[in-house]
C-alpha cells in the first residue's frame, strides 16, 4: 500500500475548510481550529481516514466489487475521469441522472440506446438520412455519451460510491442510502456527514487535494484487482447488485504547520487559496 503523507496532504490545501459562518454543525468533530475566519480541518483525522478508506476500497474490489466514482463539479471532473479510467472503474463526471441507482433498469436501457446509435453511425446508416435528421441524431448521441459514457460498462449497480462534494451530489447520496449502498466521500466543512458511511474530512474545492485523494483511491482499486488473481472466486463475482426501486423522476499540529496555514501553503495553481480568498472556487 502506497501511504499518503501528512506533508503531501498539507501542500495540497486539503485541510482548508470554508468560512466559519458556513460551517455545518455536524462537521464540528472534524475541525481543528479557525484561522482568519476559515475553519481548519484536523489533518490527522484526514490522514487516518484516507488510510482507512484505502483498505476499504481495496477489500471491496478484491471481493469482486465495483466502486463508482462521482464528481460533477468543475474542480473534480478531470480527476474523476482520469483516475476512474486508470483503475478501470465507472464514473459520473458531468451530470448525475436521477434514478441512476434506484431505477437502474431504465438507465441501462438508455445505455443500450447509446450503443445502438453508435453501431448505426459506424455502419454509415445515418448517411441515408437528411442533413437535419443526421444533425439531430449526432447531438442526441453526443449528449448520451456525455451523460452515460462513464457508466456504459457498468453491468449492475455498484458495491460502493466514492463522491467528491456530497452537498452537490446529494441525489447520488440519497439514492445510495435508499439501496443501502455504502458511500465514501470527501466531506468539507459546509457538508452534512450524517448520511456518509466513510467520511474523509477534506477540502473538496482544491484541485490538487481532489487529485491526490482520488489517485490514492484508484491505487486502492488497482491493488484490489491484483488481489483477485489470488482468489478465483472473487473473479466470478458479479459487478454490482440487482436491486431496483422505482421513484420519481488537536495536539498533533506543530507551530510550523500552523505557520504554514497562516501564510496559505497549499494553493492550487490558478485557484486562490482559501486562506487568502476563502470562497475562491467554492460552491455554495
Commentary on this structure:
With 284 residues, the protein is an alpha/beta fold. It has a domain at 12-17 and 32-98 and 156-243: 3-Layer(aba) Sandwich (Rossmann fold). Helices cover 43% and strands 12% of the residues. The chain contains nine helices and eight strands. It has helices at 6-12, 43-62, 74-87, 104-122, 131-148, 170-178, 207-228, 232-235, 255-263; strands at 16-19, 31-35, 38-41, 67-70, 91-92, 160-164, 183-187, 198-201. The strands form two sheets. The protein has a five-stranded parallel beta sheet, with helices on both faces. The protein has a three-stranded antiparallel beta sheet with strand order 1-3-2. α3 (74-87) packs parallel to α7 (207-228) and α4 (104-122) crosses α5 (131-148). The longest helix has 22 residues, at 207-228. It is globular and about 65 Å long.
Amino acid at each position: 500500500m502506497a501511504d499518503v503523507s501528512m506533508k503531501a496532504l498539507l501542500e495540497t490545501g486539503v485541510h482548508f475548510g470554508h468560512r466559519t459562518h458556513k460551517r455545518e454543525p455536524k462537521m464540528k468533530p472534524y475541525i481543528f481550529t479557525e484561522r482568519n475566519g476559515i475553519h481548519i480541518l484536523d489533518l490527522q483525522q484526514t490522514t487516518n481516514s484516507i488510510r482507512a478508506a484505502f483498505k476499504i476500497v481495496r477489500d471491496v474490489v478484491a471481493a469482486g466489487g465495483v466502486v463508482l466514482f462521482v464528481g460533477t463539479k468543475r474542480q473534480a471532473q478531470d480527476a474523476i475521469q482520469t483516475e476512474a479510467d486508470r483503475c478501470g472503474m465507472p464514473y459520473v463526471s458531468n451530470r448525475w441522472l436521477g434514478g441512476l441507482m434506484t431505477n437502474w433498469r431504465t438507465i441501462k436501457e438508455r445505455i443500450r440506446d447509446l450503443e445502438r446509435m453508435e453501431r448505426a453511425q459506424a455502419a454509415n446508416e445515418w448517411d441515408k438520412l437528411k442533413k437535419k435528421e443526421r444533425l439531430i441524431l449526432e447531438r442526441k448521441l453526443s449528449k448520451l455519451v456525455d451523460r452515460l459514457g462513464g457508466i456504459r460498462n457498468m453491468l449492475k449497480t455498484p458495491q460502493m460510491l466514492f463522491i467528491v462534494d456530497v452537498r452537490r451530489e446529494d441525489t447520488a447520496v440519497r439514492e445510495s442510502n435508499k439501496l443501502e449502498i455504502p458511500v465514501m466521500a470527501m466531506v468539507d466543512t459546509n457538508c452534512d456527514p450524517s448520511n456518509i458511511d466513510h467520511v474523509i474530512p477534506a477540502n473538496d474545492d482544491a484541485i490538487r487535494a481532489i487529485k491526490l485523494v482520488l489517485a490514492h483511491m484508484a491505487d486502492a482499486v488497482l491493488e484490489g484487482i491484483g488481489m483477485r488473481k489470488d482468489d478465483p472466486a472473487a473473479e466470478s463475482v458479479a459487478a454490482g447488485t440487482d436491486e431496483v426501486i422505482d421513484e420519481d423522476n488537536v495536539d498533533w499540529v506543530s507551530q510550523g504547520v500552523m505557520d504554514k496555514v497562516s501564510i496559505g501553503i497549499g494553493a492550487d495553481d490558478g485557484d486562490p487559496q482559501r486562506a487568502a480568498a476563502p470562497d475562491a472556487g467554492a460552491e455554495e
